[in-house]
Amino acid sequence: MYYIRIYVQAQSEKTAARKLLQENNLRLGHFTTSRHGANFVETWVDGMAFSELNREKEEINRLKEEFEKHKKQLLKRKPQVSTAKTKGGKTSNSSEHDHLTTDEFYEMEEILKLRAAAIRKREADVLAELEKLERERTLHIRELKRIHNEDQSRFKDYPILSERYLLLHLIGKGGFSEVHKAMDLRELRHVACKIHQLNRDWKEDKKANYIKHALREYNIHKKLDHIRIIKLYDVFEIDENSFCTVLEYNNGTDLDIHLKQSKYLPEREARSIVIQVVSALRYLNEIKPPIIHYDLKPGNILLGSGVYSGEVKITDFGLSKIMEDSDDSNSDGLELTSQGAGTYWYLPPECFMIGRAPPKISSKVDVWSVGVLLYQCLYGRKPFGHDMSQSAILEQKTILKAVTVDFPSKPAVSSEAKNFVRRCLQYRKEDRPDVLSLCDDPYLRPKKLVNQSSSNVSSISSNSLP
């Protein structure tokens, strides 16, 4: 009975999602396919809401032209100071019938000022509405792709995997995997089922390598138990070309989508996110052997919603490094054998250095990533290589040239936040703090504790011997 209720609810949610999609196709826009020679090309067509806004912008432009015309006409009728004597000895304005009196001019001038203010407000309202619609359109396009991928998935018809996990709907799709929201019928909780699908045409050695990589990620992830890290519950084979990992379900979005919707975040929110991420990194560096995440980026930071709003969890340990034979205090770090992997905007210079031997890395890789994350949250752009492709970053050696970080004048950000970013983005890894040192950074600690520590130091200094 419980299974049937969940199944019916999932069907209802899927129907509602498609109904909303159709409504948004009309309101926000949709893709159309047209033929160009031998190829079919998808073109985006804006919906009615954008058409209405465009008409409103045209009307505002017409009003602005009218306003400028009236303004010029009023200036031509401005009262004249110079006067000329008539034959009868009286003074008279040279264009008496064209010019206004001082009172009339002032009255019309005030009317035009009010009209200009009304036009500016109307224009600001349109721009605000356009920004809102563009954010909605971004989510709509994402939902269009999600539903298209869901309709193409072989797991779309609510299968039960491993006699336990009822798949409800597709969350997202990657290169060789897709993630479904599911119900664990044994534990009666929602989970995320990540289904890895190997290409049937792959050679056996490529399949073996993919499985080896996925199992390595599973073996790292399954041992982790921290409130700021997504839990991994289970792994099982579906058939000879696919298997599934079962993860903790996060009923929210990720930081990447949040930033695309918000552009940038208030410093208080950005700082809270970083505090939580660093808490997870502390755990990864205190366990034995320590772990470097190596792929910290907005897409791998999940945000809570509802009663969990404000909370974050990190995920995706596919590129993680285990520091088995290395101790930050006694060595230069771990040899980077997978040079070229990762998301370049978030990796430090040492990951791009080429020499006779592979570069050495440590937890300071993740510290650099934290600095990039905070900068991006505060300013809505990456500090290095923003709007550049990964290949361009590599070709132009962008990160290798990232010696200093520049801060935009807006939005306003505290000097403490800027200094924290500078500490994280020290070019030489020897000058950059490791994760455990970063945990004690004054910017991440409660202000009361920082002030208390400062007062204690002052007290000790005042009581010391001369």
UniProtKB/TrEMBL annotation:
GO-annotated biological processes:
chromosome segregation; intracellular signal transduction
Coiled-coil spans are 116-150
Per its UniProt record, what InterPro entries does this chain match?
Kinase-like_dom_sf, Prot_kinase_dom, Protein_kinase_ATP_BS, Ser/Thr_kinase_AS
Map out region (Disordered) in residue numbers. 71-100
Indicate which residues the UniProt annotation says bind ATP.
194
Q: Which key words are in the record?
A: ATP-binding, Coiled coil, Kinase, Nucleotide-binding, Serine/threonine-protein kinase, Transferase
The protein's name is Protein kinase domain-containing protein
